[in-house]
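The data layer described in this paper is built around a simple, fixed record for each protein. We quote a single record here, exactly as it is kept in our systems:
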Amino acid sequence: MTTTQFSFRSGFNGLRDHVAATPEAALATFSAASHQVEGLWSKAAVRDFTLDIDEPAALGGTDKGPNPVELILAALASCQEITYRLYADRLGVPLDGVAVTVEGDIDLRGFTGADDAVRPGFTDIRVKVDLTSSAPLEALERVKATVDRHCPVLDIVSNAVPTAITFTSAEAHIPAAE
C-alpha cells in the first residue's frame, strides 16, 4: 500500500479525522502481483505475503490453493468482518463477535467460452453475517447500514470499477531470413 506519511497508531478514528481534514492525503494505492508457476497454479505477492492460487482438479488445476473467485468471496467476507468491527466500535455498539459466510454462483459456460452470451463472473452473491452482541436490533441495523455504505470490497463487487488493462509482450523472436 502506498499512502501519505501518516501514523496509523491513532487507529481508525485518527485515520478518519486525518483524511477528513486533509483530503489530498486520502488516496491510497494497494497492489498485488502474480506470476504463473505451472499449469493453472500461480503465486501472488501482496506486501510481504505470498499466496498460492490454483483451480481445483475439477476445473483443470492441481488444487494448490484457492482459486481467484474464491479469493474474491474471502475478501468480501473478511472486509465485512473488519468493517463491522470498526464501525460497531465507532458507533459505540457492543460487538462480541462477527463471522461472515459468502457464497457465489457462476455459470461455467461463460468462463469456459461454451456460451458467449453468459457472463463469466458471479451471477449471484449471498452474504450471511452472524453478529454476537448484546445490542438491540435497532443498533445492529444502524451498524449494518453503515457497513453497507463503507465496506470497500462490497462496493467493488456491487459497482462497476473502471479498469484499465495494458498488454505487454516479450518481443517475438523471429529468425532472420537468409
User: Anything to note?
Assistant: The mean pLDDT is 91. Residues 76 and 154 are 6 Å apart (CA to CA).
